[in-house]
Each structure stands twice: as structure tokens, then as C-alpha cells.
Amino acid sequence: MDPRLYKAAARFRKVNLIKEDADDIEEVDDLIKECADLIKRVKEENPNLLLGVTPMGNTVFHLAAKVGDWDLVEEVYDEQCKSLLAMTNSKGDTALHIAARSGHLHMVNFLVEKSISASTSIDVEQGGKQTNYILKIHNEGNNTVLHEALRYDITILLVEKKPELIKEQDIYGRTALHYVASYYEYSCVEVAKLLLEKDSSVAYIQDKDDRSPLHFAAGKGYQDISREIIAKYPDTIDMVDKRGQNAFHVCIGKAHLWVLRYLTKDVRDDEVLNQKDNDGNTPLHLAVISGNPDLVECMLEKKGRVDTDTMNKDNFTPMDLAIRGENASKQEIQVYKHLRDAGAKIGIVEPFNDKDWDIVNALKDAEDKEFFLW
């Protein structure tokens, strides 16, 4: 990069620091004009100098995008700058990727408008095959600008301009909705609503491990986003990943009780409640294996609908897995009691025999301990 351009870029951050102080507006305007004039002189001397990059591959637009200097970029932008929009740095980021990731709405808006314009002109030149291609450029993480923009204000701008971005998948096969489902912020719930309203198919897109956005939301314990997905598209709960697991398996595996309660509240399909994964484990098996009495109790609330006696590939019923050692914990005993009260049975692998006696005594010991604790 030409040293004069780098010098101008070094002043970008100073401009933004001064912008925070409303009393220094005049100084901001002077600095912007100074930087803009410097960039313009370089451009007039030799337009190709504008294509210079830092050792990390950043153009002057990348550096401006980091600090959100959209007014400076707007000041110097002309047709000669068009090629800068599609230039990527060493990480595959365009200036638009960086602006979106940094949350600079004005910069994103400006770059999106110019990218659409530039893509359209290239589209005409190349016979209609490149429409809006700049907005669809993937960085080294295979992310489009929409993957980088999880803020509501930026996302709404992008999906209005380029709705096809909603279904774009990254290197892992994940869409923006997969990532939104992985974060817990109010704005992410609003972003999820927006994406689902704009394109219903995004709720059904699975990544390379066949995980849907609902798998992510349930696995992270995010009830609000899980609710948004299921409320609009209830059949997404039927979807299974490469392990054969649905949202019930995933949220139980991560011990997210509140999400499980929501999932069980309105589910109408018994097959989903009793879905076996690749190991033959139903959600109830996994709840028992977790040793969490609350998860087990929640699953057993669906009386007559949850199969308490089904066997996994090792021929274990949930009851077989309740007590797994001679010295049962209080939680394991509580899990056993929930299953016993629900009428669950022992399977064919291990006859009860002495184990039955051990459990009875363990129950008595636990009740005695509980009595003394109270």
C-alpha cells in the first residue's frame, strides 16, 4: 500500500474517536476532508495505487470499514473505486464483511448500495451471470456478509436488498439462522423472526451434520428462538441429525429443562417423543442416562404417550439405566422412583435379583438421609 494511503487510513480511528465528542464536529470535518484530499491526490496521480494492500491484504476500504468511516468512503468513492468492493484480504473478507461484523450500519448501507450497482454493471458486461455477486462472496470461513451480520438493523437491510442470502450456507453447511440460534440476545430473537418470515425454507436447511436451526436452539437452551421456529413450522421438530437425534435428544443431552418443557408442551406426535437415535436411545433413555430427575419427570408427564419400556441397541430399557452402580446417588434413586411410579419395567439384559434388593435398601437409606437433613 502506498505510504500516503496508509497514513490516511491511520487517521480513520482518530476521526471516530473525535466523533464521540459532539463539541468537535468542526475538527471531524477537517480531518475527513484532509484524509479524503490525500486519497484523492493518490488516485489522481495513479488510480492503480488505490488497489494497494497492507501485508494482511487490506485495502483502504477494509481499513475504513473497521472503524465505520462511511462518510470518508462516500467522499472519495467514484467509478475508479468499484473494484475495491470485491477485493478480499488474507482472510477472504471484503470491506462489507468487516463493516457488517463490526456493526457499522451506515457503512454497510453505503457499501451494499454500491455493491449492487457494481454487480449490476458487471452483470450487463458478462451476460447476466453475476447479479449481486459481491454480496454473495464467501470469506475463508465460507461466510457471506449475512453470516457476519447478526444485528437486526443490518440483517433487515441485507435481506431486503438480497433475500437470497438467507439460504446461503457456509463451509459447515450452516445458514445465518443456524448462527442466530446459537446466540442468546433479544436482537437475535428478532433476527430469527425476520429470517423465518422472509424465507420459510431456512427453518428446514440442515448443516453437514444434518442439524437444523432448531437443533442449535434446543442444544443451546434458547427457549425464545426454539419457540419462534416451532410456532411457525412445528414439523421441524421431526428433523433428525446424523446421530438420528431430534430436538428432544439434543436439549436433554445438554440438560436444558426449560426448553424440554416447552417442547413437550404442545407436541402431538408420539413418534417424536419416542424417536430412537442411532444407538437406539429414546429421549427418555438419554434423560435417565443424564441422571437428572427433573428431565426424567418432565418426559414422564406425557403419560401413556412415552414408551417407558422400549429397548436401545444394547437391549436396555430406561429402567435398566437408572441405577448403574452399587452405591447409587440420590439423583439416580430419584430417577428410579420416577420410573417406578410410571410403571417402567426392567429389560431382558439383567434380571433384577439382588439388584432389586439393593435398590430397595438404597431407597430406604436415601429416605433416612433425607429425614435427617430435614
From TrEMBL:
- List the GO terms this entry assigns under cellular component, sorted alphabetically: plasma membrane
Mapped ANK repeat ranges: 91-123, 279-311
| Domain of life according to the entry | Eukaryota
- Answer whether the UniProt record assigns the keyword Repeat to this protein: yes
> Which keywords fit this entry according to its UniProt record?
ANK repeat, Repeat
Q: What is this protein called?
A: Uncharacterized protein
The species this protein belongs to is Tetracentron sinense
